[in-house]
Amino acid sequence: MIDGPLFSIGKLHFYPYGMCMALGIILCFVFLMYTFTKRNFNDEAVDKILIIGIGATAFGIFMAMVFQALYDYIEDPSQKFSLGGSMTFQGGLIGGVVSFLIVWNLYVFVIAPRTKIKILQNNMNASISDALPIIPIGITIAHAFGRLGCTFAGCCHGAETDAWYGIWMYTAEFGHAKVVPTQLYECIFLFALCGVMALLLFKFKFKYNFGLYAVAYGVWRFIIEFVRDDHRGSFLGALTPSQFWSIIMVILGIGYFFLAKYLLSRFEKHPEMQAPVRQPKKKKVAAEGNVSEGQGEPLEIIEVLPEDNGAENVSGGAEAPAGTENSQENQPEDKE
Questions:
Q1: How many C-beta neighbours within 10 Å does residue 273 have?
Q2: CA–CA separation, 54 vs 48, rounded Å?
Q3: In sequence order, what are the residues at sequence separation of 6 or more whose Cβ sits closer than 8 angstroms to the Cβ of residue 4?
Q4: pLDDT tens-place string over residues 140-158
């Protein structure tokens, strides 16, 4: 839809596809960090999951280009294997998930138990099993914004059409043409799937979002491939590469339900059921009063400690209100 950069600063050009992709990745990690924190993951668990996740995302982007280059080479071996810049999401997903699992398990089961370096020791109060219901929600956020970027860039489109639902955009295959906006359809689907998984997680404590994501997206992608008309190489007979991996995703997604129930559940630490790792901040409430120069009493600052609803800590040099004992014996100990 937009042929060229959205704006430029000197020689630095900002394209809508890249901006949407970057925004999606940022929002993905912001959501994960916020949700992990709210579910009582300690700082070490949050940091290490996110750091490994960022590395896996970078490697996934690289693998998205490798997979597409491989499809092109399989179709026409006369062309040299080249990372030309085109990417395929499922190749990136495979690269990202596999690299994350390798690094995570290497750290948890090999490095952490043997190291004497404090920063590499494992003091996390949550495991990857606790994070797996949350991670696919972040993936769909990033993916949905990526598909919005595809809509602006004119890639991943459907066939030419004169129907009312067609959108004019610049495409590599047809030039400026009115095509079925399959990118926009997928963007809407991903946001809807994101909402469903968030509802299941936060309201019903559903633990199998990763399996749901794999099955739902696999089915969707297999079907939408019949409508898409941007050539991405051949793989196995009549199946497109994406349809092949969609079948694999559905099979693995179904298997995940059993894996999570009978194996991964044993590694759950349930941080949301543990004692809070972050102490709530004290709330300062100003008592009613009228303070002006030369008249009236100074305001009392009452520190309300949420840990003890039955006592108040009075400070500021003023007397406690009538009927309130202000003895050291009845004061709660401030551990902060």
A1: 9
A2: 10
A3: 15
A4: 999 999 999 998 888 899 9
Hey, is 175 helix, strand or coil?
strand
- Kindly tell me the number of DSSP H helices and DSSP E strands found in the chain: 8, 7
Give the tokens for residue 331.
């004061």
CA gap 241, 238 in Å, rounded? 10
Which residues does 295 contact at the CB level (< 8 Å), separation at least 6? none
CA dihedral 224, 184, 201, 21 (to 10 degrees): 110
pTM, two decimals, is: 0.81
Q: Are 210 and 193 in contact (CB under 8 A)?
A: no
3-state class of 30 per DSSP?
helix
- Chain center to CA of 316: 46
Taking alpha carbons only, the member of 248, 249, 256 closest to residue 206 is 256
Residue with tokens 């009927």: 323
Where is 9: in which H helix or E strand? strand 7-9
Characterize 90-120 residue by residue with b for buried, 16 or more Cβ atoms within 10 angstroms of its Cβ, and e for exposed: bbbbbbbbebbeebbeebbeeebeeeeeeee
Identify the three-state secondary structure at position 176: strand
For residues 20 and 148, the answer to whether their CB atoms sit within 8 Å is yes
**Per-residue pLDDT tens digits for 248-259:** 999 999 999 999
Q: Return d(Cα 320, Cα 240) in angstroms, integer.
A: 77
Tallying the residues shown for the chain, one arrives at: 336
Asked if 33 contacts 150 with a C-beta cutoff of 8 angstroms, the reply is no
Spatial separation of the C-alpha atoms in residues 125 and 63, rounded to whole Å: 32
Contact residues for 198 (Cβ-Cβ < 8 A; gap 6+):
137
